[in-house]
Amino acid sequence: MSKVQKKTRLIAGCGMLTAAAIVLQYLEIPIPFIPSFIKLDFSDLPELIGAFAYGPIAGIVIALVKNLIHLAASQSGYIGELSNFILGAVFSGVAGLIYKKNKTMKGALVGGVVGAACMALISFPSNLWIVYPFYYNFMPKEAVLQAYQAIVPSMKSIEQSLLVFNVPFTLIKGILCVVISMLIYKPLSPLLHGKSE
User: Fold this and answer.
1) What pTM did the predictor assign?
2) What is the C-alpha to C-alpha distance for residues 65 and 3, in angstroms, rounded to an integer?
């Protein structure tokens, strides 16, 4: 495959994965026993697949374009999209970097799990210092804490709530994306790379 063909394949593949990420970002699933403003979506999955197929930069670019397009429908004053980009970029960037150094099923699995763990860790400061302070303009901090206390009355602070709810939720979401990517990456590979590869 020539350089031009590879570049064309890269652009087409990233475009297809970005389109999938945009659609998935709108398919939010409410989760029982978690405050209603925390919803599950799988829009990080195409970013992860892109990072495995084309490298970490591709995963980050897919995360960026997805969120730039989603700005038009933002209900969070663009803060949600900023946070989503930060987390998605960390997830796909770390996973893609590890896989790039060890292009095996084990490398993809390790990369995905480490990426998910990094995303979960970054979600704490991202929510604490970026997302929630913006939401406090519309919903008092006390009301946000009460939403957590309605589920677990022993929650004493936003920080504790983020550690108990948001960080594990983000980790589980990342792990689910890794599991799904392990199942679908091989069947998708001919489409992403061309049947000759």
Assistant:
1) 0.89
2) 24
CA dist 191 and 197 (Å) reads: 10
Strand partners, 29: 40
- State the Cα–Cα distance between residues 44 and 66, nearest whole angstrom: 10
Cβ neighbours around 128 below 10 Å, total: 15
30 pairs with which residues across the strands? 39
Residue with tokens 């929510």: 127
Contacts of 64 (CB under 8 A, 6+ apart): 85, 89
pLDDT, tens digit, 9 for 90 and up, residues 131-152: 899 888 888 999 999 999 999 9
Burial class (CB in 10 A: 0-12, 13-18, 19+), 134: middle
Q: Which of the 8 DSSP states describes residue 197?
A: -
The angle that helices 105-126 and 167-193 make with each other, rounded to 10 degrees, is: 140
The whole-chain average pLDDT of the chain stands at 91
Rounded CA-CA distance 159/37 in Å is 16
